[in-house]
Amino acid sequence: MTSAPPARHSRRHFRRALSALAAGLALLLAGCGGAAPAGGGPGGGGLTPVTFLNVLPIESLTFTPEIIAQAGGHFEREGLDVQFQVTRGSAQAIQTVIAGSALVTRVGDTEMMVAVGGRGAPVSAVGQPLQQATIRVVSAADDPIRAPEDLRGKTIGIPSEGGTSETLVDTLARTAGLTDADVKKQVVGLAPGVFELVQQGRIDAYLVALDTAVTVQRQQPDAVVLDPSQVIAGGTQVYMTSQAALADPAQRDVLQRFLRAVRAAQDSVIADQSLDATLQTLGDAYDIPILREPEVAKETLRQYMASWQATGEPLRIAPDQWARVYDEAVAEELVPGGLDASSWFTNDLLPGASS
């Protein structure tokens, strides 16, 4: 197992990651462990109601599979009435799924591992809608960050302290043998004008979502974008449900139908070579700002599509990649070493799987 690097304050990150989950999970594990998740009985029109928790506003291309599954009728064809419900971050989403108030959510791979490996949360990953990181590191051409070793001595802007972005910076730095003393992190938020801080020399680079990175590249000719997925395994996203749902045949069936609908939506987008029909469906359903620039939206969506298929089969969790994500989390001391991370996910509910 990978050993933790020296001279880091990763234990502080571990405690911080756990603290976001600790209070809620302790209460839920004590009192709600056997609760049945939402998504059981038939709803109006014979459809089964399902609550999907999105940890960010749904109006983003990152949720294209879910939006197309809903607006394109794929959920309905599977007999599902899926309602999107935004939460205040992954910790709340995980707690809500355990409590039984929602059937499924979508969280970062490391957040999932912290919940299970750090707190023993009774949850499992059942699919991987994003199979590689879609966060990007943006810098300027006069002092570019093109590889992890370029982080040495730099100040990197992150949206918030203790989140996925900070973990990603730490993991990138570790691959180059750097310590916390070598890389400074500064909270800069998510304002559109953050690139100006780079141009002014106040920070050297910052982390943004794929949508923003594509926009910045088009607007700023001197912008340089590093794709962390070329270096690290982490930063993916998984569908997560409770172990209680997996143990309940009726809930398990609902999850299988949910995943079939999402896969059908992904396939329909992949088949839409021009993406015109896809953008039309997305725009008819939600006011997604990037759709006002169709060519930027198409370029962004094609990169998302690549992330859906990065390991060869949409939604499937690749065991070797999952093991590498776990090793990265152990090296950052986000989770203890020596655990069986392969027991934290299943591909048995995916289309074509025998379960």
Automatic annotation (TrEMBL):
Xref: InterPro entries: NMT1/THI5 (IPR027939), SsuA/THI5 (IPR015168), TAT_signal (IPR006311)
Pfam families in the cross-refs: NMT1
Cross-referenced PROSITE patterns: TAT
Keywords: Signal
Residues annotated as signal peptide: 1-35
Keyword Signal: yes
GO biological process: thiamine biosynthetic process
Domain SsuA/THI5-like residue range list: 63-272
Signal recorded as keyword: yes
Annotated protein name in UniProt: NitT/TauT family transport system substrate-binding protein
